[in-house]
Each structure stands twice: as structure tokens, then as C-alpha cells.
């Protein structure tokens, strides 16, 4: 069977971004009443998030459950419309598009969902599921060639192309996720938004799916927005990492900068919880336990949203929102610590007294 054409990936840090997100905001209204509904507040799911994604690059977005990362994913593929901000694809703001213009953009930005057990229609065959994008975009494949294209896609993701007439329940969880990936590839997109694509799978299967995503990226020149809460998985697949907390970015940088030289207290606490299999690597390593609970996104703290759990917090943290910027102390010297961090005291070592174990 003929393989789908391959493309050489391009990852150039000086190239123009393929996808640009600027000051993205999504608030969900809170209402009271059944007949005469009255808005009494809003859930601040995403509050001023900005990042870029270049061709052939993987941006990992990490954070606790409820931090807003899945809402970002839905905004990128227009499953939700933003309250404010811009999402630019190849320089064009796509946030207000509709009709044919939106349909054309959606062909280039596809999504792989979290749960392979609920994201596939149990009443449809695998062939119909993977070929469904061709029904919406018939120009991508003439009717006579669709079965062949679907079989090619199944082969590309490591499945038997002769299983096109089987149903989702006849496949394992890992195989179902491969079906979802094949569906996402059908229209040859440039960007794939993967929302927790391996969190519902066993650890051994997770590695297989991550390796598949990396291979597909090399073959087709894909750009990924990879969303997860597993820091180990994100480090393995990502070129750059953005850390979210309560709707905002706390820190961003290359995988080396974030994992080996974190400057935001929240990132430091997250990384301290990552298991280290080698006992020698645990020597001298401190475990930071954060005090208190994550505040409600319906009533977030003023200033820095992490201040209520931060051991570095001072009066200014309650009054001024810290910008996501390189700490001034590191600007001239450069180095791995010179990456954006939304903390007034990112350049200060401080101590985690009261938060350490």
C-alpha cells in the first residue's frame, strides 16, 4: 500500500510563528434564576494567556486540573469562542471567523481528544470515523479514493488497514487513541492540539503513543500544542513548556530552562513532586508541599494568583499582577535562568520554609 507523502519538519526559532496567541481570555458567566436568569459572576477559566507555536515545534502546556489548559485547547480549535484576545494562524486573527472562512482554518488545526473511549462514536465503524473529515471537506478526497486514504491512515498510525469495518469496542484503549490520531491527520493539518492524549492510557501504552506522535511530527512536519499534567511526558515530547496556574501562565521556556532552572515558586513545587527512579538522584532533593487549596476561578486572588500559597509572597504580590517577563537580574547575563516568569521575586532564591517536608 502506498504511504502518504512525507514532509521534512522545520523548527526555526527565528521563523515567523505559525500560531500566535495574544492575551487570550475566556470567562464563563455564573447565573442565578430559572426563568429570569441574572449573571452574578464569572468563572475566570483563562485570563490573559499568550504564546507562540512555530512549524515543526511542540509546545507543552502543564498545570493542575482546573488551571484552564483544556479550555485553551478548546479555544484554539473553536470549540469555544474567547471572551477577549487574539488567536492568529499564519498572521490572520481567526477568533471571529465563521462560515467558510472558519471551515478552511479548521482543516489546518485539528484536535486529538483525551478519552479514546468517549471521543469515538460507538455506532460508527473505524472507516467511517477516520473518513468523517472527508464528508465535511469533500475537496480533500474524492469519494472513490476515501476508503484507500482511510486505510493508508490506519497503516500510518500502526493499525491493520483491513480493520476499517470494525467498531471501536473491538479495539484496546491505545488502539482507539491511534484511531483518534488517524482522524486528526486525515486533512493533513499543520497544527494538532492534543488535549491530555495519553492520560487515560496505561503507562506502557503511553510511551507507544508518545513515540507515535513524535514519528508523525517528523514525517508530516506537524506542530503540536501538547496539553498534559504529567511533567515527565511533557518533557519527553516538548521543545518548549508553558506552566499554567489558575488561568494564567506562571512560567515559560525551553524544556531545559523549565525543568532544570525553574524560577517561579509554583513550577518549583510541581517539579519537586516528580518521581525520581534513581535513588542517587533523590539525594539532597527537597519536596515542596504547598499550603492551602487552589482558589476558586470564580473568585481569584488579586495581584499574583499564586500568592495565597507562595512562601515568597509580600505585599506587592497582592497589589500588582506580575508580568510574564525575564527577571531583570538575568537579562544581561543570559543563561538558562533568563526565561519569562510571572513572579515579582523570581530572581531571588528565597526558602520554602513552611512548605517543605
Structural account:
The chain is α/β, with parallel strands linked by helices and 357 residues long. The chain has two domains: 19-243, Rossmann fold; 260-331, no CATH class. Helix content is 28%, strand content 20%. The chain contains eleven helices and ten strands. It has helices spanning 69-76, 99-108, 126-136, 146-156, 173-185, 203-220, 231-237, 255-260, 265-272, 315-319, 328-331; strands at 19-32, 38-53, 58-62, 84-89, 92-93, 109-112, 191-195, 223-228, 240-245, 248-254. The longest helix is centred in the middle third of the chain and has 18 residues, at 203-220. The termini are far apart.
Compile the SSE list and pairings.
Elements: E1 19-32, E2 38-53, E3 58-62, H1 69-76, E4 84-89, E5 92-93, H2 99-108, E6 109-112, H3 126-136, H4 146-156, H5 173-185, E7 191-195, H6 203-220, E8 223-228, H7 231-237, E9 240-245, E10 248-254, H8 255-260, H9 265-272, H10 315-319, H11 328-331
Parallel strand pairs: 3-8, 3-9, 6-7, 7-8
Antiparallel strand pairs: 1-2, 1-4, 4-5, 9-10
Helix pairs in contact: 3-4, 3-5, 4-5, 5-6
